[in-house]
Design brief:
Blueprint: H1 2-32, H2 42-54, H3 72-82, H4 94-107, H5 117-126, H6 133-149, H7 152-162, E1 164-166, E2 169-170, H8 172-180, H9 189-198, H10 202-207, H11 212-224
Antiparallel strand pairs: 1-2
Helix pairs in contact: 1-6, 3-9, 5-6, 5-7, 9-11
Membrane topology: Single-pass membrane protein
InterPro entries: Glyco_trans_51 (IPR001264), Lysozyme-like_dom_sf (IPR023346), PBP_transglycosylase (IPR036950), Pep_trsgly (IPR011812)
Main location: membrane
Length: about 230
């Protein structure tokens, strides 16, 4: 009986405690980021390690800039393209998740995530690019932590500064310079719409910038931008 209790302790109690400690770490780290900017993210570090396998001297392109110095064109374009209900929902768009789940069931594998801007930020800050329901569950937990600690503007500010926009390119300022040679504050509506459309697959569009889909989707986002509500 004593051996059984020890076995249960190591198989159940210890893993549960480790999971709870991990959640506490996430919670406290997010609280710190309310007033401090992240130096990097889990996703950024992972991409840097991949680049440095080919070139040990490789570095990421990223420069933090305040929310007010990022063009409203870009903010509206991203909300129109990625998360039209960003200003209203509490972090998770359950209708979008249901549609993604139904699509995954139909395809027989995970092909859609239904992630909001807050969920994307949760994944970028702490998680990997792996697609699984376990990772999605952790993403949802971190999402609600972000929404607990931060207002929408702060969430969006961090997102705009750490989201991937190309091969080794992260954040609005680096993206504006990389693609157009201007600051993030100077982005036009058309430039902003095109950058927003790149977000689901930025490394692909960094290399294939003239695809027909990119042009069509950019035109659609341009038409939707004016109705996008900023936080």
């Amino acid at each position: 009986m004593k051996i059984l209790r020890k076995l249960l302790f190591w198989l159940i109690v210890v893993p549960v405690l480790l999971v709870l400690l991990l959640q506490l770490y996430f919670f406290l780290q997010i609280g710190w980021w309310v007033n401090h900017n992240p130096d990097s993210t889990s996703f950024m570090r992972h991409q840097l390690s991949i680049l440095q396998e080919k070139n040990p001297k490789a570095q990421l392109k990223q420069k933090w800039i305040p929310y007010k110095r990022i063009s409203n064109n870009l903010k509206r374009a991203i909300i129109a393209s990625e998360d039209s209900n960003f200003s209203e929902h509490e972090g998770v768009d359950w209708d979008a998740l249901q549609k993604a789940y139904e699509k995954n069931i139909k395809k027989g594998k995970v092909v859609a995530g239904g992630s909001t801007i807050t969920q994307q930020l949760a994944k970028n800050l702490f998680l990997s690019g792996e697609r699984s329901y376990l990772r999605k569950g952790q993403e949802v937990i971190i999402t609600y932590m972000l929404e607990y600690w931060m207002d929408k503007e702060r969430i969006f500010e961090i997102y705009l500064n750490v989201v991937e926009w190309g091969v080794g390119v992260f954040g609005a300022e680096a993206a504006a310079q990389h693609y157009y040679g201007v600051s993030a504050a100077q982005l036009s509506a058309a430039q902003a719409a095109r950058l927003a459309v790149m977000l689901p697959n930025p490394r692909f569009y960094d290399v294939h910038r003239g695809t027909a889909y990119l042009g069509r989707r950019t035109d659609l986002i341009l038409r939707r931008m004016n109705s996008a509500a900023l936080p």
